[in-house]
Design goal:
Order of helices and strands: HHHEHHHHHEEHHHHEH
Distance between the termini: 16 Å
CATH topology of the largest domain: Bacterial polysaccharide co-polymerase-like
Number of domains: 2
Helix content: over 70%
Shape: rod-shaped
Oligomer: single chain
Number of strands: 4
Radius of gyration: 50 Å
């Protein structure tokens, strides 16, 4: 048979082309084909017999943003009808995906559930799982390969699907991811709100401290000058002087009347009224001098000016304090309106039946790859025969 094929190759070489029957024989190798069939059988035995069962637990999450106005809500509804993506929720969901794939969350999950034990290799399936002593980076990559995180750009929904070798392990991992997602969203959202409220509280404390200082300054002023209120004292003194002046005017009128009645200016009635007028004038002069007399290097006018300045400072600080309280309340309402929540569209699904799709998919992929390799190898072999003979 070999001598016949060689003669055919020699004759075909002169004509520049091999016969199709010979090319087909060089392409089809019975030994290679047998190896392919044996490997395919081995794939079938492994994927449909030996391979450990896999279970998938899933949940759908949605990050709910702050409430919008009615017009914005209507606009969002129209956008959803025409297929416009929900960019805010989608962006938040992508941030959440980054967190769920982060080494920090992986470490928390490993400490709580012991992923090395959950995904450990067990006989007779020596290909599924992780070996003993696997490194942290390799285990992190294995973890990422067994969680499927998918974001729907249209509505911003995040779908989490976890694969494990038992229904309980798949459920526990998915439930843990849900809890961590809630903590992440709440921490970020409340952290922003908390920072705003802290700034507002700092402003209130600062203004309140200034108000206390202003009132303390007024109290120190009153103690230092031994005066409860310079304004009250000035008003009292002014009223006293006004009353004395009014009485003085009445006496002067009475004196004028008496002088017309008595021709003698030294009459007892006239002298009595004159003495009263002199006494009142002296008292008025004394009160006016007391108002202007220096008391601890400050007269009543200066004390009144200083007191009014201190009281004006208190009033201004009180207005600032009220403004700070209003601003803090506005910040609190705004912060509450901007809080985001994680909404679970369904409970965590605990699988009952195993996932068989991966068995069929991997069997056909391995089989297809084997035959493709065989065809490439056979084609290369055929080309080599053509050039050789």
């Amino acid at each position: 048979m070999t001598s016949i094929v060689r003669n055919v190759f020699k004759k075909a070489k002169g004509r520049g082309r091999l016969p199709s029957a010979v090319r087909f024989k060089s392409l089809v190798d019975r030994k290679g084909l047998a190896i392919c069939l044996i490997l395919t059988s081995a794939y079938a035995v492994y994927f449909f017999g030996i391979a450990r069962s896999r279970y998938v637990s899933s949940i759908d999450l949605f990050i709910r943003g702050p409430e919008k106005a009615e017009s914005s809500t209507a606009l969002n509804a129209i956008s959803a009808l025409v297929g416009k993506p929900n960019q805010d929720s989608s962006q938040d969901a992508r941030y959440l995906v980054k967190y769920l794939q982060s080494p920090q969350l992986f470490q928390k999950l490993d400490q709580k559930l012991n992923l090395r034990k959950i995904y450990a290799i067990r006989s007779p399936d020596i290909f599924s799982g992780v070996p003993n002593g696997i490194g942290t980076d390799s285990l992190l990559s294995f973890y990422k390969n067994n969680i499927n995180l998918k974001v729907d750009d249209l509505d911003g929904t995040l779908s989490i699907a976890t694969t494990a070798f038992s229904p309980k392990d798949a459920y526990n991992i998915t439930f843990f991811l849900k809890q961590q997602s809630e903590d992440f969203v709440n921490t970020i959202s409340q952290g922003i709100s908390k920072s705003q409220l802290i700034e507002a509280k700092k402003e209130i404390d600062s203004v309140q401290s200034r108000l206390v200082d202003a009132r303390s300054d007024l109290l120190k002023y009153q103690i230092r000058n031994n005066k409860l209120s310079a304004k009250a004292e000035a008003d009292t003194l002014s009223s006293l002087i006004s009353g004395l002046t009014s009485e003085l005017v009445k006496l002067k009128v009475e004196l004028s009347t008496l002088r017309r009645r008595f021709n003698d200016p030294n009459a007892p009635e006239v002298r009595d009224v004159q003495d009263q007028i002199l006494s009142l004038e002296d008292q008025i002069s004394a009160e006016r001098r007391r108002a202007l007399r220096s008391t601890s290097s400050k007269n009543l006018t200066n004390l009144l000016f200083e007191e009014q300045a201190l009281e004006s400072k208190i009033l201004l600080t009180q207005d600032l304090y009220k403004l700070a309280l209003t601003s803090a309340e506005t910040s609190r309402i705004l912060a509450q309106s901007q809080v985001k929540y994680l909404v679970a569209l369904s409970d965590v699904y605990k699988p009952i039946d195993q996932d068989t799709a991966w068995r069929v998919r991997n069997f056909f992929l391995f089989t297809l790859a084997t035959f493709l390799i065989y065809i490439v190898f056979a084609s290369v072999r055929s080309i080599v025969y053509e050039h050789r003979y």
